[in-house]
# Entry
Amino acid sequence: MDENIINQIREKAKELLSSGTVECVIGYEAGTDGMTSRPAFIYEASDVERLVFDNTCTHNLATYLINKKTNKVAVVVKPCDARGINVLLSERQIEREKVYVIGIVCQGVVPVSWSGSGKDLQMRCKLCNQHAPVIYDFLIGEPAVEPVPTVSPWTSVAEMESKSSAEKTDYWNKQFSKCIRCYACRQVCMGCYCKECFVELLDPEWVGIKIDTSENSMWNMIRAFHLSGRCIGCGECARVCPVDIPLGLLNMKLAKEVAEHFEYRAGLSAEVRAPLATFNKEENLGIGE
Ligand code: SF4
Ligand code: SF4
Ligand code: SF4
# Structure
């Protein structure tokens, strides 16, 4: 743990709560397993000593800003999570005046699971080229000049792209056949905030209630498309999947396509909306002609 970072988080949280600037500070606290951290919701200045920060702080706390009933909250964010705030701002899901962003210059997080945490950095952190948040009100840490990446950010999808269509179909069918449709991937995602999710609609019924490979594939593919150009690659959906479906691989492929076709990366700005989340009435899609 970096005591300097923790002290700064606690001091800022205390100041914001004591002055009434915010009603709640969303940050991290030590988990009950004694090894990892978990999200914490601090409402009293006397509770700020609970706040911690270490390399197990993998959760994307931007998720908890959606539908928050309080007037104004502060949230501790890593740089990738900060891009999630920009996505929510651009999609008018949160108001800038109601969110105080405590941004942290980040050196990466390790894999975290029920059984504890790993030692090596997560893949996304190894490929990360943005260790300072793009949006913040208070910054903790010194932004350094980013090292020039030595590997492509799309390294993780290269192997899958090299496979034949039949091999890809076989691979994903095997993965999706494991899905138990628990929807943990959706619940943890800052971009999955629809009040009515397509998977629960009966009219039209996009996905049948039957749990089999075909219906599961439909669920996972449509969700991935809904997140295309909006997913900020926090990796939370894959982390919480109880059957270890590599959802990050799917998300990364779509992020790559959006980057190559639209030169767009999700969450770099609150002013620009995701290419696939917008359309002009004048657009001619060639449907029904
Ligand atoms: S992806 Fe980058 S910003 Fe996000 S946790 Fe890893 S190193 Fe930090
Ligand atoms: S978390 Fe995994 S098992 Fe649950 S719905 Fe998502 S893909 Fe399926
Ligand atoms: S789809 Fe997964 S990786 Fe992307 S923002 Fe949602 S939880 Fe994070």
About this structure: Residues 38 and 257 are 33 Å apart (CA to CA). The first helix runs from residue 3 to 18.
